[in-house]
Structure formats: structure tokens, C-alpha cells
């Protein structure tokens, strides 16, 4: 649905009428600026309050060579890819939508947040917050303290007093 702007718009407008709390949308990965612009226009017309990007990159196949089996369980091994491998796509989407909306819509950056530097990069691209998934499953709840310490160390080293100061500050050459 996220790749069909007409269907997305119809659904978002219907849902918006009944949602009484802030409404967010988790977007799929878009791979071309034309798609960012089209969906940006849809989101702008539907009064979306925040964005979460990106959802997993679909239909990858991960193999455990030691066991000679698929790693992802559903659909015969085909499933959504997350973690480090999708971070560049996630960052591109966060940055594109941050620029499209001139920082006026909060964005939750999702994809490849494994270390504090990953959260920092998402914020540089415009994310107001980050979501973690894969590393949470791998490390458990202790991951939050580790990420917080790593991010705080980066901010201090770079001279930022808060995460808000670096939000959207990615320099383009």
C-alpha cells in the first residue's frame, strides 16, 4: 500500500477522520527522489502528525551457512531485512522527508541503529527519535543504556549540548 499513493491517500484520509490522537505513518523504503516527493505530497494533504521510516526492506533471504538453513522463518526464508544492512536506505529516507517538510514533521528514524553513532547519524539526517529492533532482540533491554552512553559521548565530543542541536544538521557538499 505504501507504494501506491492513491490508495495510501484514500486510507489516510479515512483513518484521519476517526483518529483523535496524533497520527503517525510508518513508511516503506523509497529508493528514488520522485517517490519521496509523491508520498510527501500525500502526507501533507492527510494531516499526518509524525513519520516513522523505514519499514524493513522486503523479501531478502538470509542464510546460516553453518546450519545450511534460512534465518528468516516465514515464507520459506523470504522476509523483511533490518539491522545494519538497511541503514543507508533509512538515512536517505529520513533526510529526504526532513527536507521535504523543512523539519516541521517529527520523524522517527528506524533502520540500522546498532550503536550510538547510528542514532547520531539518524538525528543529523533529521530524526527526532530513533527506533531499534534487531539489536533489541539480540541484546535485550540493556541495549538502551549502552546506546544512551555511546550517543552522549559522541554529542560531548562534538560539542553538542543536546540531541536537538544536531537534528537536521547534515552538511551536503
What does it look like?
It is a single chain. The protein has 173 residues and is an alpha/beta fold. The chain has one domain: Alpha-Beta Barrel (TIM Barrel), CATH 3.20.20. 43% of the residues lie in helices and 16% in strands. α3 packs parallel to α4 (116-125) and α4 (116-125) crosses α6. It is globular and about 50 Å long.
Topology:
Blueprint: H1 5-16, E1 24-27, H2 33-45, E2 50-53, E3 57-61, E4 63-64, E5 69-70, E6 78-81, H3 87-100, E7 107-110, H4 116-125, E8 129-131, H5 134-139, H6 143-158, H7 163-166
Parallel strand pairs: 1-2, 2-7, 7-8
Antiparallel strand pairs: 3-6, 4-5
Helix pairs in contact: 1-2, 2-3, 3-4, 4-6
Number of domains as seen in the coordinates: 1
Order of the strands making up the biggest sheet: 1-2-7-8
- Major pleated sheet: 4 strands, parallel
Order of helices and strands: HEHEEEEEHEHEHHH
Which residues form runs of ≥5 with pLDDT under 50?
none
CATH topology: TIM Barrel
Radius of gyration: 17 Å
Mean pLDDT over the residues: 94
CATH homologous superfamily annotation: Aldolase class I
What separation lies between the terminal Cα atoms?
A: 34 Å
Amino acid at each position: 500500500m505504501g507504494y501506491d499513493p492513491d490508495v495510501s491517500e484514500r486510507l489516510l484520509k479515512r483513518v484521519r477522520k476517526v483518529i483523535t490522537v496524533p497520527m503517525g505513518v510508518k513508511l516503506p523504503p523509497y529508493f528514488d527522489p520522485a517517490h519521496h516527493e509523491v508520498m510527501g505530497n500525500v502526507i501533507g494533504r492527510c494531516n499526518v502528525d509524525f513519520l516513522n521510516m523505514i519499514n524493513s526492506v522486503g523479501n531478502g533471504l538470509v542464510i546460516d551457512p553453518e546450519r545450511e538453513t534460512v534465518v528468516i522463518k516465514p515464507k520459506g526464508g523470504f522476509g523483511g531485512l533490518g539491522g545494519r544492512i538497511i541503514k543507508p536506505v533509512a538515512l536517505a529516507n529520513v533526510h529526504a522527508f526532513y527536507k521535504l517538510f523543512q523539519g516541521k514533521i517529527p520523524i522517527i528514524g528506524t533502520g540500522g541503529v546498532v550503536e550510538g553513532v547510528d542514532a547520531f547519524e539518524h538525528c543529523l539526517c533529521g530524526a527526532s527519535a530513533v527506533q531499534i529492533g534487531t539489536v533489541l532482540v539480540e541484546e535485550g533491554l540493556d541495549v538502551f543504556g549502552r546506546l544512551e552512553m555511546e550517543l552522549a559521548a559522541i554529542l560531548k565530543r562534538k560539542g553538542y549540548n543536546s540531541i536537538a542541536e544536531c537534528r537536521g544538521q547534515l552538511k551536503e557538499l
